[in-house]
Specification:
single chain; 6 helices
Length: 193
C-alpha cells in the first residue's frame, strides 16, 4: 500500500495533535492537586479572615507554610511518577528541585521587596495583590500548559476584581467561598481531562 504525500502529512498532523493533547493532559494532572490544595487554603483562610479577623494572621501563616510543604510533597511524590516535568536522571532531579526552590525564593523576594516599596496596604489590598499575582501566574502557566489552566487563571482574576470593587464589605468571604471554591473546582476540572 502506497500513501500520498498529503496522506502522510495528515497522519503526521494527527500524531502531533494527539501528542499536544497528551502533553496538556499530563500538565493538567500535575497541576490539579496544587489548585485543589490552595483552593482549600484560600477557602479556610479567607473565611476565617472575614469571620474572625483577629485570628487571620495566625491562620494565614499556618496554612500558607503548610501549603508550601504540602505542595513540595506533592511535587516530590509526582516526580517518582511519569509527568511532564519529570527529570530523567538523579542529577536532573536535583537540578529541578533547585530551580523550583529558586523560583519560590524569587517569588517570596518579589513580595517582600514590593511590600517595602509600595505604600502601606491594608489587609484587603495586600490579599488582593498577592491573590492577583497568583491568578496572573495561573494565566501564564495556562498560556504554556493549556487552555483550561488559562481559564482558571482568568476566572480567578475576575473573581478577585469583582470582590474587591463590587462587594468590598464582604471581600474575604467572597474570596474564601467563591474564589477558593473556584480553585478547587478548577483542579477537579483539570483532573477530569
Amino acid at each position: 500500500m502506497v500513501i500520498s504525500k498529503e496522506e502522510a502529512a495528515q497522519a503526521l498532523n494527527d500524531i502531533n495533535s494527539a501528542n499536544k493533547r497528551t502533553t496538556n493532559m499530563q500538565h493538567y494532572r500535575h497541576l490539579a492537586p496544587h489548585l485543589i490544595l490552595w483552593g482549600f487554603i484560600w477557602l479556610i483562610a479567607n473565611t476565617v479572615t472575614e469571620l474572625w479577623p483577629a485570628n487571620s494572621a495566625a491562620i494565614w501563616n499556618g496554612l500558607s507554610w503548610s501549603g508550601v510543604v504540602t505542595s513540595m510533597w506533592i511535587g516530590f511524590r509526582s516526580k517518582h511518577r511519569s509527568h511532564p516535568f519529570a527529570a530523567t536522571s538523579a542529577e536532573a532531579h536535583g537540578e529541578r528541585g533547585f530551580r523550583i526552590l529558586l523560583t519560590m525564593l524569587t517569588i517570596l523576594g518579589f513580595f517582600v521587596a514590593t511590600f517595602f516599596i509600595l505604600p502601606k496596604m491594608d489587609m484587603k489590598q495586600a490579599n488582593a495583590y498577592i491573590s492577583m499575582f497568583w491568578g496572573a501566574y495561573y494565566m501564564i502557566v495556562g498560556i504554556w500548559a493549556g487552555a483550561r489552566m488559562l481559564v482558571v487563571g482568568v476566572l480567578t482574576v475576575v473573581s478577585i476584581l469583582f470582590a474587591f470593587f463590587v462587594i468590598p464589605q464582604h471581600y474575604f468571604l467572597w474570596m474564601g467561598l467563591m474564589t477558593g471554591s473556584l480553585l478547587i473546582l478548577g483542579g477537579v476540572w483539570l483532573r477530569k481531562v
